[in-house]
UniProtKB/TrEMBL annotation:
Record-linked InterPro entries: NAD(P)-bd_dom_sf (IPR036291), SDR_fam (IPR002347)
Protein name per Swiss-Prot or TrEMBL: Uncharacterized protein
SUPFAM superfamilies listed in its UniProt record: NAD(P)-binding Rossmann-fold domains
Domain of life: Eukaryota
Bilayer-crossing regions: none
PANTHER family on file: NADPH-DEPENDENT ALDEHYDE REDUCTASE-LIKE PROTEIN, CHLOROPLASTIC-RELATED, RE15974P
Amino acid sequence: MGMHVGLSCAIRKALRRSRTVEMGRIICLSMSLEVAFRLGYWAYTTSKVTMEAMVKILANKLKGTGITVNYMASKTIATELFYDGNTEEIINRVTNDCPHGRLGLSKDIMPVVGFLAGDTSK
């Protein structure tokens, strides 16, 4: 629920700001839904689908304003939160599911985020 409230606030602020700025970037980062379509992940999956829908709605609403909206869903990124919230068994299973046989790192996704945030992504 907190994520949706936060995203709703961001949407309202972006709509207000779209009247006064010529350019802006909104980039929502998430994890791929691929892992979510498993038994027991219904709440997680619901929140991700809702977030993706809200991003699409916002992108359509801001069309033509100079503010771009993107949603980036990567495979699992090795973060403190991921390690703290999972057992070793889950960590190993998720790692083995990754194409490169390892969890992603922040540095893996930063070039894409940089591109989306930059002027060339118009």
